[in-house]
């Protein structure tokens, strides 16, 4: 064969297509498999809450003290992140105090407490404010309610003996207010929340959470959060459930791409809170998600493995290489056989 000059030997020529096929399968197949794995569904995205410090609001309230004895008004409501300035006016002929509990709770100081027990309570727990006003006097005091005061109720009383017992008491209730944890979510015409997993990690409860819900599609939706933690709502009866157990928030997401709504709500304690869209049929079609409040969310479902596919590409390339080897070997072997009688010698 030597000296015939052109190119490859016959065994190599026979084996070459198979070897090329093996290279093609390995060289093209593997990158294609690797690239396609990046486009496989990757499971639900997770949204993580971002802690922020809300701006502080300033609120003024005038409280009149009377000899009834009483405070007018006796119920004050503020938001979190508020500085409350109480202007006190004693319109009576007796001295009264405005003594605010440091301990939250609508009945931290039981109404049947004796004057000694009232004194002991404030001696033991301290107070947020303690002003004594002579008849006709007036005074002001600032009280601060931060992000950690959500849902707290603080009592204020007059500690002059037997005034509290006679009814000189009131409450400051702290409602939600601006959120201290921000999240984002989206609604889609495929009836999904994107993401459908929201994570809140805070060191104090209750916490006010604000979710900015944007509409990616054209249908209107709602962002409605279950009042119960670790409780699964049912598409069959959530309407009646919410009648007896009002949701933490029921925020309408207007129709039309680009519209958005803030869904602000207060989470009382750690746990998993389901949220749904209450538009008929949407929840049943899978339009729900979960807020994981200091609970680790389950890992998103793993994308379908490409290991088997990649394995088969390698096996296929290997088989083709074996075929190439066999073809090459057999061609070399055939090449050594003497020509059949009557056949012209090989060229
Ligand atoms: Cu919906």
Textual characterization of the structure:
This protein is an alpha+beta fold and 347 residues long. Among the domains are: 46-52 and 179-293, Cupredoxins -  blue copper proteins (Immunoglobulin-like), CATH 2.60.40.420; 57-175, Immunoglobulin-like. The chain has four helices and 20 strands. It has helices spanning 10-37, 115-125, 238-244, 307-336, and strands at residues 46-48, 50-51, 57-66, 70-72, 75-79, 82-90, 96-101, 127-133, 138-145, 153-157, 169-175, 181-188, 192-194, 197-200, 207-215, 221-225, 249-253, 260-267, 271-276, 288-293. Strands 1-14-20-19-16-17 form a six-stranded mixed sheet, with no helix packed on it. Strands 2, 12, 13, 15 and 18 form a five-stranded mixed sheet that branches. Strand 3 and strand 4 (70-72) form a beta hairpin. The longest helix has 30 residues, at 307-336. Residues 1-6 and 31-43 have low confidence and may be disordered. The protein binds copper (II) ion. Copper (II) ion (CU) is lined by residues 191, 221, 277, 279, 282, 287.
The H/E string reads HEEEEEEEHEEEEEEEEEHEEEEH
Number of strands: 20
The number of helical elements comes to 4
Instruction: Tell me the major beta sheet.
Output: 6 strands, mixed
Q: Work out the radius of gyration.
A: 38 Å
Q: How much β-strand is present in the residues?
A: 25-35%
What molecules are bound to this protein? copper (II) ion
The CATH architecture designation of the domain at 46-52 and 179-293 is Sandwich
Helix content: 10-25%
> How far from one another are the termini?
9 Å
Give the full name of the CATH homologous superfamily of the domain at 46-52 and 179-293.
Cupredoxins -  blue copper proteins
Label the overall shape: elongated
Structural class per helix/strand content?
A: alpha+beta
As residue ranges, the low-confidence spans are: 1-6, 31-43
């Amino acid at each position: 064969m030597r000296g015939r000059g052109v190119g490859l030997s016959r065994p190599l020529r026979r084996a070459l297509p198979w070897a090329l096929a093996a290279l093609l399968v390995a060289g093209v197949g593997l990158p294609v498999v690797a690239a396609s794995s990046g486009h496989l569904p990757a499971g639900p995205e997770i949204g993580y809450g971002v802690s922020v410090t809300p701006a502080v609001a300033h609120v003024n309230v005038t409280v009149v003290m009377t000899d009834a004895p009483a405070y007018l008004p006796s119920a004050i409501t503020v938001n979190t992140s508020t500085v409350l300035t109480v202007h006190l006016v004693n319109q009576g002929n007796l001295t009264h105090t405005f003594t605010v509990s440091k301990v939250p709770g609508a009945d931290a100081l039981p109404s049947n407490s004796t004057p000694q027990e009232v004194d002991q309570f404030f001696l033991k727990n301290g107070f947020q404010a303690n002003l004594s006003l002579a008849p006709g006097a007036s005074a002001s005091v600032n009280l601060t309610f931060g992000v950690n005061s959500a849902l707290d109720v603080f009592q204020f009383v007059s500690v002059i003996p037997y005034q509290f017992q006679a009814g000189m008491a009131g409450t400051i209730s702290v409602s939600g207010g601006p959120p201290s944890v921000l999240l984002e979510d989206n609604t889609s015409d495929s009836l999904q929340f994107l993401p459908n997993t929201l994570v809140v990690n805070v060191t104090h409860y209750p916490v006010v959470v604000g979710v900015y819900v944007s509409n990616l599609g054209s249908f209107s939706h709602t962002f409605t959060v279950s009042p119960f933690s670790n409780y699964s709502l049912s598409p069959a009866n959530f309407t009646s459930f919410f009648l007896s157990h009002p949701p933490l928030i029921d925020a309408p997401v207007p129709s039309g791409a680009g519209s958005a709504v803030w869904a602000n709500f207060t989470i009382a304690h750690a746990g998993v809170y389901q949220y749904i869209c209450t538009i008929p049929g949407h929840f049943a079609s899978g339009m729900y998600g979960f807020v994981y409040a200091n609970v680790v969310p389950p890992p998103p479902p793993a994308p379908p493995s490409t290991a088997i596919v990649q394995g088969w590409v390698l096996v296929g390339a290997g088989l083709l290489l074996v075929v190439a080897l066999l073809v090459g070997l057999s061609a070399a072997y055939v090449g050594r056989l003497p020509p059949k009688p009557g056949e012209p010698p090989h060229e």
